[in-house]
Structure formats: structure tokens, C-alpha cells
Amino acid sequence: MPYIKADRRNFFDFAITSLVHNLKFGSDDQNRAGDLNYIITRVFKEVYADKDCYKTYNERIGVLECCKLELYRRAISEYENLKAIENGDV
Description:
- This protein is an all-alpha fold.
- It has two domains: 1-47, no CATH class; 50-90.
- It contains three helices and no strands.
- It has helices spanning 6-26, 32-47, 54-87.
């Protein structure tokens, strides 16, 4: 999770809340991953329009990688630890 200051969060939260609502109630399990992929791709395409160079490609990959790692750190590893306790370790 990028730990940005509250005023920066407030700047984006209304749009994010609306987007999340649309994803929760306008997508189904079969389409949700594709919808999220579309949204992320569109945001990156718009934010980085006319900025095709190694630096911005590297920045985009870095953002995605850090999001992946933060999801793993905050949610998946905790889930895996719980399942290891419930089912026994490997």
C-alpha cells in the first residue's frame, strides 16, 4: 500500500469509491479480472500518454510489481499462514 498523506487520499477517494461500486455491482465473477485489467490499462495509457520511453515503461512495471508485492505482504501471506496452521505445514 502506498502510504500517501490523507489529503492526497482524499483527492482520489471519491473516484475510487465510485469505481469500486461499479466493479462490485456491475461486474460478475467471470468478467471482474478483465474489467480490472481494462481499468488499469486505461489509467496507465492516459497517465503516460505520449511518454513512451524506457523510464516510463520501467515506472509502470514498478508500480504493478509493488502493488503485487503489497497484496502478497498484507493479505496472501497471512492467509497462507492461517491455512498452514489449519491444515499442517508442508
